[in-house]
Amino acid sequence: MRKVLLSIPAIAAVLAFSATAEAKTYKRHIAENNEKAYCVEYVPSTYIYNTRGKKVVGESRSWVGDFVDGATIVKRRNPAVYKTTRKLVEQDHYTLVDGAC
User: Fold this and answer.
1) Per the CB 3.0–4.6 Å rule, which of 76, 80, 82, 83 could disulfide with 59?
2) 34-51 per-residue burial string, b: 16 or more CB within 10 A, e: under 16
3) Would you say 82 and 52 are in contact if contact means Cβ atoms under 8 Å apart?
4) CA distances from 66 to 63, 73, 77 (A)
């Protein structure tokens, strides 16, 4: 009788454990035809800027000061003036990036 009383909780524990073990199921996603996930990324236009593109005014030198009063007279250099130009290297587009989004 004692063995029967001790075996009943043991059998109940085994049945409870096996029931919880069977209740857990997992799904595994298998990519068909070697599918890959891609993320869409926007790439803006790329330009090269040339700060010495078109010359507007050339370099010059000038005297600055008052000759009459005897003040300091300075020979000043005036650098050239240019208009910046830009050249399109790569136009804006969308690209697919491999990996997690």
Assistant:
1) 80
2) eeeeeeeeeeeeeeeeee
3) yes
4) 9, 7, 17
